[in-house]
């Protein structure tokens, strides 16, 4: 282990030695000599051959040379400490390498370098993440580490597959009438998600809704404990599905107001619903927007009742099953379009 640990340390300090050797060539020569020996030892270990003991002894003698002269009795215990530290260095290096590989694979396959908590990955910032609970102890953390590898390997084939929208039983809200001459897109979003709002505005400005058959799937992000990421998203999604039973334009009017509307003080309705409004305040505004969209009092009463129904509850549960388990989505907005799954901010081409 001393040989392998020495190789790791020499590899890490290589860039600094390269700079120093510009001014002191002897340092570079000594480094290359030691690196050559360390690599030879490591290569033998890889081939399951025995390392040369000479290099191991050289390392120990270099580290213990002064101790041998002043405190000979310390040599044996310090030698044991060096062996132990070598094991620690190798274990940490292997763990760091595996973690780096896992993060890169997760970023490629799932869109986030952190499988359990996508929001912790800065490279996945252009989405609202669907996080799992943090492990409570070292045993859960170890089990989760291996589980994450499983999720990554399960998701890798998805990168090479073609998605058929009709294979998924989404409950959705249709934007306009379907046209067989247009491509179809499934657009999954959370009313409280800032990135979803930006994507919606980009799509609207680019004419995406007019040029494609777009199926909107309102989705209130939940954690492992079933709590909602944005406190009023659930009631908004319920009202959207309830309104869609009467007229899809009513449901679209709700999300359009949340994503593009502002109150008389110029505050975004999305911010107000996420941070300031109570559930009762949110319902009051939803029903006002429905009236403005042309809904009658009888229709609003029906929407109010249907929003609390088991039917809407089942719709939301089914969509969650599809999003989290069948599509293995780690963040939204997510869109199925042109046979591909696209996660994150939508940008006009």
Structure notes:
The relative contact order is 0.10. The radius of gyration is 29 Å and the shape is elongated. It has helices at residues 2-12, 14-23, 25-46, 53-70, 75-110, 138-155, 194-206, 208-211, 233-244, 248-260, 269-276, 279-292, 297-307, 310-326, and strands spanning 128-129, 173-175, 184-189, 213-218, 331-332, 334-337, 340-343. The longest helix has 36 residues, at 75-110. The model has no long low-confidence stretch (mean pLDDT 80). By secondary structure, it is an alpha+beta fold. A hairpin with a 2-residue loop joins strand 6 and strand 7. The protein folds into 3 domains: 2-91, no CATH class; 94-159, no CATH class; 163-343, 3-Layer(aba) Sandwich (Glutaredoxin).
